[in-house]
Amino acid sequence: MNPILVINDNNDLLIEITNILKEEGYEHIAASSASQALTQASGYDFSLVILDLKLPDMDGDELYDKLLQSESHYVLPIVALIDSFDSEEVAIVNRLLPKGTLTLLSKPLDHSRLKDLFARYGNKK
Q1: pTM attached to this predicted model
Q2: Does 57 fall in a domain?
Q3: Is 64 inside a domain boundary?
Q4: What is the C-alpha to C-alpha distance for residues 58 and 17, in angstroms, rounded to an integer?
């Protein structure tokens, strides 16, 4: 099983994304913080990570590095959720770009685009 990992500190957005994953039948794990994601990620290879760039306990690029360190034998595509695309988010995106496949998705979410990404990378139950 290679679930999709969803990390977002906005509970409403986390629920919105996980509801789409449930409705579409995809394996997934959800976390509301970087530390929770790292705890739950242990032992998994993920097919995709939906990543909030600015988490209260860690920036998205640092979390991505830690996820890769824990499962260093694979490449992990990223969907980065963009709020305002302020200078802080731009800096995080610039640090993520050289690390692998990066897709930017703005909020509010485009459900059809999200479903396309799930279909490309995800595994149905």
Answers
A1: 0.89
A2: yes
A3: yes
A4: 21
State the residue range of the domain holding 65.
44-109
Reported as half-sphere exposure (CB side, CA atoms, 13 A), residue 96 has a value of 29
Low-confidence ranges of the chain (pLDDT < 50): none
- Domain of residue 51, CATH code: 3.40.50.2300
CA distances to 81, 119, 123, 124 from 93, in Å: 10, 24, 26, 29
The tens digit of pLDDT for each residue in 77-102 reads 999 988 878 898 899 899 988 887 88
Phi/psi at 33 (5° precision): -150, 165
CA distance 60 to 49: 11
CA-to-CA separations, 70 to 8, 17, 22, 23, in angstroms, rounded: 20, 24, 26, 29
Tell me, yes or no, whether 63 lies in a domain.
yes
Quote the pLDDT of residue 6.
97
